[in-house]
Amino acid sequence: MHLITYTGDGLTTEYDFSFPFFQISDVWVSVNSVVLSAGACTVVPIGAYVDGKYAGGRVVLTTAPDIGAEIRIWRKIDLSRTIDYQPTLPINTDCLNADFNFMLEYLRDLYELDGDVGNVENAIQFLDSIRAQIDALGGFSELARKSDLPDLTEYAKKSEIPDTDDFATKDEIPDTSNFATKSEIPDISNLATKDEIPDTSAFAPANHTHDMSAYATTSALNSAVTQLQNEIDDIDTSSSFPIDFDDNDEPDVVVKTQLPSASNNYTWYRKYKSGWVEQGGRGAAINNSAVTITLPVKMADTNYFPMMSNIVPANAVGGNYNGNGIVIVSTSQVKFATTATIPGFIWRVTGRAAQAE
Question: Using an 8 Å Cβ cutoff, are 192 and 198 in contact?
Fold first, then answer.
């Protein structure tokens, strides 16, 4: 059986087919399993009529099927005799070929139908096997009816099951062996209830005064303090504490500072009123080389005091503790060098600044 299937796009009305047919009534068309009548579609042959048949054609529908509609085109030949051979007349070979072609195409369709019948028989055998299994279980009467099935509406849906990520795991549950048991909880039956606590309204208020006659008066206390102060003033302490101060002495105070941060490359300084400055910072890793540091505060001269301390790894390896060197380059730069491989160093410079605050 020749069959061609198309899917509608809502626009197309013409569909080609390539199977042979003998007359227009041999071609059938359906849309979504509904067979179309002659008024809803037209069959147009393609090519010449050879040996009593057409090689193919085209189906023209009056209305374009909807999007997704199934269009099926197939051939169904009605068995009938079209040529009557007379014993007294010669046989026309064209007529004979056309007659045999008709019979051959019909037999082909019949052969394909026979294959479909075989498929149906296989399906029937499969259904019979299912029935045998049901009978082995006691028949349909033993199977659960719809009314016997539990009501699943009472069950929690997956979206209603709580997220267990916040639940405590078995290892996170505290050990209750040290908790007090019911028998170990003290008996509170002998404790006073709220109603048994006495009324404190009759108690003496906080500002209640008592007899102060035994206490010293304010005037007597002031007199005693004055007498003690006079006795202290009469004591000569000049010989006991011989400390002399220069009239020009005054403390040297910090007047300007800078704290280390990423913006200043982790450098710091403290400038004093006298012009003295302390400054320092942290240097990067050095591998058998030297690095020049530009001081955040320029020094007055090159007679200042530079210092350097290595930063070493937690687990020292060979070459981490070799020699270091310090070179005063100028009043604004100092160079630190090492023959080791160190992850960093700390530097510090003290001396007089070029400009006092």
Answer: no
